[in-house]
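Good morning,

Attaching, inline, the backbone tokens for the sequence recovery test we're adding to the shared suite. The designed sequence is right after.
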């Protein structure tokens, strides 16, 4: 299992707040899954606000609310894909 969290300068590592808990069968699977998370989020973050709104309204993001929420949070804090961190839980 792994946790996806956003590292903010004001939050210490021992008090991280996960935004997603995921699971994979093996360590290589976790690495690959994390890579896929970042690819999906990068696609959204590269869109202009208008393109992103059109993308959401078109229904293309249906069933992928994790990425939409993460995108919105990152935009609200003026963050980047580099602020997303992963912590192995087991």
């Amino acid at each position: 299992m792994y946790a996806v969290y956003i590292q903010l300068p004001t939050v210490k590592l021992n008090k991280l707040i996960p935004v997603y808990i995921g699971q994979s069968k093996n360590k290589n699977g976790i690495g690959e899954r994390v890579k896929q998370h970042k690819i999906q989020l990068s696609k959204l973050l590269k869109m202009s606000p208008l393109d992103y709104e059109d993308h959401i309204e078109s229904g293309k993001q249906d069933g992928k609310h994790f990425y939409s929420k993460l995108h919105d949070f990152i935009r609200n804090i003026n963050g980047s894909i580099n602020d997303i961190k992963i912590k192995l839980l087991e």
